[in-house]
Amino acid sequence: MNYSCSRYELKCNECGTLYGNQPLSACPDCLAPLEIVYDLEAVRGIFTRENIAAGPANIWRYAALLPIPEGFQPDLPVGFTPLIRAKNLGKRIGASNLYIKNDAVCFPTLSFKDRVVSVALANAQKFGFEIVGCSSTGNLANSVAAQSARLGLKACILVPADLEPAKILNTLVYGARLVRIDGNYDHVNRLCSQIAEEYNWGFVNVNLRPYYAEGSKTVGYEIAEQLGWRLPDNVVVPMAGGSLIRKIRKAFNELIYLGLVEDKPVRFFGAQATGCSPISVAVKEGTDFIEPQRPNTIARSLAIGSPADGPAAAHMIRSSGGWAEDVSDVEIVSGIQELAETEGIFTETAGGVTTAVTARLYADGRIGRDQTTVVCITGNGLKTTDALQGRYTQERAVRPRLADFDAYLRELDGIVETELAAAGGN
Amino acid sequence: MSIKVTLPTAFIRHTEGRKQFDSAAANLSGLLADIDQTFPALSIQIKDDDGKLRRFINIYVNEEDIRFLGGETYAFQDGDEVMLIPSIAGGR
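Structure tokens for the assembled complex are given below, as produced in the milestone run.
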């Protein structure tokens, strides 16, 4: 169950051993996470601005630097989500050069997980797995279920029992088997590590993890390309396992190495919920280890108390000159509302975390007003509507008569003179 | 008193194929000392240069991360099921 490929292979970050291509996530010698390394010289002249621009309007335009097996024909237009200038939100929080990378509208399941799953499943097929699975806080479950259905793979997905109902429904609808585990994400994840050892299944974020994680790089490529092939000054990224923020950095470094963008320092800022903030705490305290936490936050998609990529993420953030912050559940809900009211983007709780943390970074002067800053919104608010329960009450229904409507508006706004009277009506 | 220890499959080449073994260790440092004696090849594998457990290995006691139970100060109870698992995580 392996394949050879001259373009990329697995490498241990700690001891440097190379492992070819196989479903393996930890170094058999030292148990450190494995990562994909590329022959970057081999893609020089191939991975160019011109070739990328001539590619499809999705992540496959960057296929030369993704671990995609020879012969794989991608057919889902994943990614290439909008990068929008956020003038209104910027005005509110004191930012004049703010952008939102909006993966709330990623195809096909409305979160950035579609990127990583598409790369992982391409490899699951190549390795010959007939059943794929994942441990998930929701978005990953949705994406594995949808994309495996399309590829004709069976899916078995494990989630914490208290997951949001919408995320459960959005998994079951694709015909996937979903197993609710009586525990938090860290319990689910530990169980999946054991299952992956005993069953011949391809777990996208366990034994396929090195391939899966590479899909996150496409967020970084897209940001640079959509900014006109230049890097931002700052990036604000939500953190759960700590993988995405490092992969955006990896993407930027590859673009610099290959000459697609000018080299410049980019500061990375991590966002967590205070109720699950092991990486943010490590950054603030300057430690190189992660003290695990028992998650207690409405931002369930970020609720990983023992993040494997946490130490590396904390180290990278500090070395970039960035910072990490965490916000309360109340601030998370306000963040969701603020982004919706200013930019018309409805994000899930994780996006509320990122928005609220961004506001605080500006308020605390950690990010300068005129710097170019990209905020990564990774999921859609339709999946976590329970977070807004009770925020909006449904008003009484109005009779379908103009006078009733006019009276109703007056009642709502407390206005004495009617709109109709002001307009000369009666 | 006895605890049951389960190892990841990646380690069984250092234990002559054994994935589980019993130990009479009273705590984590006792368990590591036990591994030193019984499986010296495994001992080299799971410790760093300072003789401490590598940071990529998590220890679970009856489904709970030992760090929530007091870590090195936790006293094993008779019948505890102890697992060594690589710290591979999902999420973003």
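Residues 395-426 of chain A form one domain. Chain A has a mean pLDDT of 94. Further analysis is deferred to the final report.
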